Amino acid sequence: MANIEFVWWWNFLLLPLPLLIYFLLPPAQTSSPVYMPYLPQSPAGNSSWSLMAKGLTAVIWITLVTASARPVWYGDPVITQPKHRDMMLVVDLSYSMSQEDMQLNGDYIDRLTAVKQVLGDFINQRQGDRLGLVLFADHAYLQTPLTLDRKTVSQQLNQTVLRLIGDKTAIGEGIGLATKTFVDGDAPQRVMILLSDGTNTAGVLDPIEAANIAKKYNVTIYTVGIGAGEMLVKEFFMTRKVNTAKDLDEKSLKEIASMTGGKYFRARDSQELSNIYDTINELEPISQTTQTWRPQQDWFTIPLAIALVSFFSLLIIRRNHV
């Protein structure tokens, strides 16, 4: 009942109108009595039927007044942000993402697991943005179209597995497919976050050429290079230094970001990756403009239905007992 409001509540002032008419108007003139030698005895139940008729008449009046007050049910408030940003997350799913060189709490985890953890938190913070997910390996695939449903994007990211779409790295196709999703959109801001740990080794589109196309459609690209770089690896009787990020094409990633007005970031561990997304949140702040609306449904048909049923019941009573 707390969600029901009467839009024209002042109509309830009409409720005492029948009583005012009854007590204030002069009584009707009575005709002269006619005396008859015999009057049929009234049935014993007439008084109860009369009370029921009066009750039904009162119900009809009350329900009609209630309907005229326009009862409306309101649902819980829904908050929307009228101006949204379109943001595509373009994630490398090549087999090199299985490299366990991302440090987290003293342990090393693979790159894809680190991306899932940190990027999942980033997705949850982007309230009001339309998010989409593109995965690329041998080719690029649209995993999640642009949507305001952040939960779905996060679930789709968490369900990704290595070798799902191959082992290679098609960076250019990833940028091209993400740009294609922006073409028909009307968002005032178009942002792409490209995350890769390698060099373009597959696909039919060169990354720089793809970035030029994205620039024409006013897409800002932030690039993130993944990989610890130099780290010590223990073997049988010795420890040697290896470069786990030797395949990372930082030059291209920097150029892609620079030519589209974005920025390049380097993530050597999970903490650096988390800091990068915090920085992107600052560079692309979430819009604070909101609109609130409540779903509503008119309920005047309910008292009208009660009044109609009461009216027909009253007709039946008067026909059978008057």
Description:
- The protein is α/β, with parallel strands linked by helices and 322 residues long.
- The protein is built from 9 helices and 15 strands.
- The chain is 38% helix and 23% strand.
- Strand 11 and strand 12 (239-243) form a beta hairpin.
- The strands form 5 sheets. A 6-stranded mixed beta sheet has the order 8-7-4-9-10-13, sandwiched between helices.
- It has helices spanning 17-24, 46-68, 111-125, 150-158, 171-183, 207-216, 250-259, 270-283, 301-321, and strands spanning 4-6, 71-74, 78-80, 85-92, 102-104, 107-109, 130-136, 140-147, 189-196, 219-226, 230-234, 239-243, 264-267, 291-293, 296-298.
Would you tell me the structural class of the helices and strands?
A: alpha/beta
- Count the helices. How many? 9
- Report the span from N to C terminus: 40 Å
Largest sheet: 6 strands, mixed
SSE pattern: EHHEEEEEHEEHHEHEEEHEHEEH
What number is the mean pLDDT?
A: 85
Task: Indicate the radius of gyration in whole angstroms.
Answer: 37 Å
The strand count comes to 15
Q: Roughly what fraction of the amino acids lie in strands?
A: 15-25%
- Report the helical percentage: 25-40%
